[in-house]
Amino acid sequence: MSGTRPTEDHLGLADLQLRLSRASLVACEHQPALHAAMEARRHLEAAGDQQRLGEALIQLALCSSAMGDPAAANEVALEAIRVLGPYGDSPDLANAYAAVAREALQDCRLADAIRLGDQATEIARRTSARSVEVNSRATSGFAMVLQGEPEGLDRVRESLALALEQDLAWPSSRANQLLWCSLLVTGGPAAELAEVHRRQLAIAHRHGFVWGSSDQEIQYAFDEGDWDRALQLLSTYHDEPGEERAQLLAACIRTARGDPPPSGSIDALLRRLHARSATARADCALAVQVMLLSGDLNALLDHAEGVVDLLGDGHWRPDVDVAAVCGLFAAVWLGERAAAERWEGLSLSGGSYAARSRKGRRAYALAERSARLGETQRALDLFGESAECFVGVGGSLVGQTLARLRRAELLAARKSLNDGAAVSNDLAFVETLWRKTKATWYLGKLHEAAASRGLDFPSSNGQLPARTRDGSVGLTPREREVAALVARGLTNLQIAEELTISERTVEGHVERILGKLDFHSRAQIAAWLAGIEPVRA
Length: 537
What we know:
Elements: H1 7-26, H2 30-47, H3 50-66, H4 70-84, H5 91-106, H6 110-126, H7 130-146, H8 151-165, H9 169-186, H10 190-207, H11 213-223, H12 227-235, H13 243-256, H14 265-273, H15 278-281, H16 285-294, H17 297-304, H18 318-333, H19 337-347, H20 356-372, H21 376-389, H22 397-414, H23 419-437, H24 440-452, H25 477-487, H26 492-499, H27 503-517, H28 522-529
Helix pairs in contact: 1-2, 1-3, 2-3, 3-4, 3-5, 4-5, 5-6, 5-7, 6-7, 7-8, 7-9, 8-9, 9-10, 11-12, 12-13, 13-14, 13-16, 16-17, 16-18, 17-18, 18-19, 18-20, 18-22, 19-20, 20-21, 21-22, 22-23, 23-28, 25-27, 25-28, 26-27
């Protein structure tokens, strides 16, 4: 019957369906958005309006991408280019190229993302399509960041500035989100990350949508150990493409707290993720952390095989780097020499671009290699460097823990002057991390693992006071603030950025804190704030 409708009816209905699809997509109601876009396509094909059909195809590509179907999104966007190409430059043609560029980025085809993004940008500029210009320029800029090209970060910032200047809702949110990701990759200042996060919340509030802001809030809560908050946020997460990641993060928390997910549920999530884009498949790496937190190192090695093809260039998720560290740790801890050497090589694979988590992964692998070759001091230094790379948002509690645990093991074996105190302080730092998460079950597993290597956590020796410190030893309010940031693992530079003071001022505060407490290391400050009496040299 639809074929008998007048052309005007088809066009009118197509317009209504396109409006419905866009509104549903902004509200993260992806299934209704996809259905409306398909209906718009049907009406425009019936009306024979090729140029409007191109517009519907682009919307359908956006919806397919949001639904986690990259193949369909890419296919429909390419069809839009074929339909619109004969009509010459237009905002819709620019948008079609931008959609294909976006899918190339999702699939980690970085050179294609840059090339297609640049094509989209040029057409958008010629046709004054500002929204498309912002999106395509942000896409190519982030791809450049992932290729280790510093100017990519400037490009992302420029696209955001244009979006904010033009008050473009969705492009502002996406450009800001890609700036956030770029800063995570490059190890940007904590203060700028916080500013980007606040802006994401403001954009969402101003335009009435939540895309990106909830992801960032979850990332902050999870990486900084505020796991009650993380679980609260995860329980309200309804963005379909990110649902598997949300469930895996929740599984990490519940497993570490002694409440693992039902048998088979992790495998079901992984099967769904393997049907997604390369970027989405990177979320499979979280299953490796679930196995670590369950204490099953053999299962960890099995699951780690699923991230091997993600260790090359183009993949930026810190979880992938942490999974490689977990694989190497498990092989070494189990005494599987061949597996350890294989994971050592895998962890050193890929380019050496500036991603902080990749630096942490490589430092960990080089530390294990140095330990294997008997270069103990170099191994100790590299384990310390690895732990530092996993501090803060975009880092990993697991990454910090494994590096410090292996460092403590080497120190204990060396038995040089002050090594005993250093062992206790490293273990105290680890205990501080996990007490904050309230993951007492996993902390117990850490105690068991340490004991099997002849290591004792400070609290195992009865050194855990009944309450945490209240600053009664005479620290000023600013010194207590600095001490809290030291306990989170921040460097002096990161603390300076967080508090908007100079690095030299922070150095002075840290020296005074150490003096008042009669400590000699930052790990002692962290242990003390957690209520653990640090071992003194």
